[in-house]
Amino acid sequence: MSSGLIAVTGATGALGGRVARRLADAGARQRLVVRDPARAPELPGAEPVVASYGDGEALRTALDGAGTLLLVSAKEDADRVALHTATVDAAVAAGVSWIVYISFLGAAPDATFTFGRDHWHTEQHIRGTGVDFTFLRDSLYLDFIPTFVGADGVIRGPAGDGQVAAVARDDIADAASAVLLGDGHRGQTYELTGPEAFTLTEAAEELTHAAGRPIRYHAETLDEAYASRAAYGAPDWEVAGWVTTYAAIAAGELDVVTDAVSTLAGHPPIGLAEYLAANPESVDHLRT
Ligand SMILES: NC(=O)c1ccc[n+]([C@@H]2O[C@H](COP(=O)([O-])OP(=O)(O)OC[C@H]3O[C@@H](n4cnc5c(N)ncnc54)[C@H](OP(=O)(O)O)[C@@H]3O)[C@@H](O)[C@H]2O)c1
User: I need a surface site. Which of 1, 12, 42, 163 has the fewest CB within 10 A?
Assistant: First the structure.
């Protein structure tokens, strides 16, 4: 259980904002570590403080007096591991005793999903400091599945016939807030997944039903995937992250299904059909 003040990063974002709201609803005292205080959510018991990942001095000041840190991983960046490790070091220097880190399913030094490697290096750094930790290894966001579809109604990616048990951000937030407010989670690693693994062909069928328009999945080769994303002009590390999201599905690294959300949050996670029914606006861009 957290002792006293909980610092929450990423509170201007989708996941950190959801966790901050849940903590506020539970009456917790928290400090929202944000880059832009004007965008910090206004919540009872929460005060915004300004610091960016990597800015050690600002972070040490921002985290002074906090016992617990929820560290939401930074936006993908070539230097993301350095941003994370500097944030961890500042937290430890400020006296934080427990870091709850939002990691990724299958985090490993050789994970097919290249951004998943950042999470493993961050986890290793946290372990090395000796601070208490809990790692929440999230599957792919269920919320992102509708965004996989191109304007032509086709999901293109090198995912083969692989499966993914994508998990809704609301379910991750329920589990994360339960961890932060509960006992017995220090030293634990939880894999947060949806209720079932599905192929992108099955996802296309659900999206077809939700959008009322034919959506299909085209399994690209790796070469096709890199070629079809070249026009965006993004740096190589970013394109590799996009492509390997799908390649990790093909490799069977994201088909894991656990009961961690149910156990932690006290309710089962929602699946894709339920998510689309509850969030019809998520397919608005597919209806035209
Ligand atoms: N599991 C998945 O499928 C999946 C998919 C995408 C991303 N992710 C990871 O999960 C994280 C949280 O997801 P989300 O949906 O909440 O993302 P989001 O809505 O983009 O929010 C990211 C949050 O992190 C903050 N942040 C990012 N880089 C920062 C930095 N260098 N210094 C300080 N704050 C920084 C952002 O602050 P600002 O508002 O100031 O930008 C924002 O509050 C992402 O950042 C990413 O690492 C996971």
Answer: 42
Task: Please state the separation of Cα 262 from the chain's center in Å.
Answer: 18
Q: How far is the CA of 16 from the centre of ligand 1 (A)?
A: 8
In this structure, are residues 116 and 251 in contact, taking their beta carbons and an 8 Å threshold?
no
pLDDT of residue 4: 85
Q: Cβ neighbours of residue 206 under 8 Å, at least 6 residues apart?
A: 198, 272, 273, 276
Q: How far is the CA of 264 from the centre of ligand 1 (A)?
A: 22
- Provide the whole-model pTM: 0.97
> Is the CA virtual torsion 113, 117, 122, 126 positive or negative?
positive
Calculate how far, in angstroms, residue 212's C-alpha sits from the geometric centre of ligand 1: 31
Contacts of 38 (CB under 8 A, 6+ apart): none
Low-confidence ranges of the chain (pLDDT < 70): 1-3
Measuring from atom 11 of ligand 1, which residue has the nearest CA?
73
Euclidean distance between CA atoms 127 and 20, whole angstroms: 25
pLDDT at site 3: 56
Rounded Cα–Cα distance for residues 264 and 241 (Å): 29
Mutate-to-test residue for ligand 1 from 8, 15, 140, 167, highest number of ligand atoms within 8 A of CB: 15
- For ligand 1, residues with CB inside 6 Å are 9-10, 12-16, 35-36, 52-53, 72-75, 83, 102, 104, 138, 140-141, 144
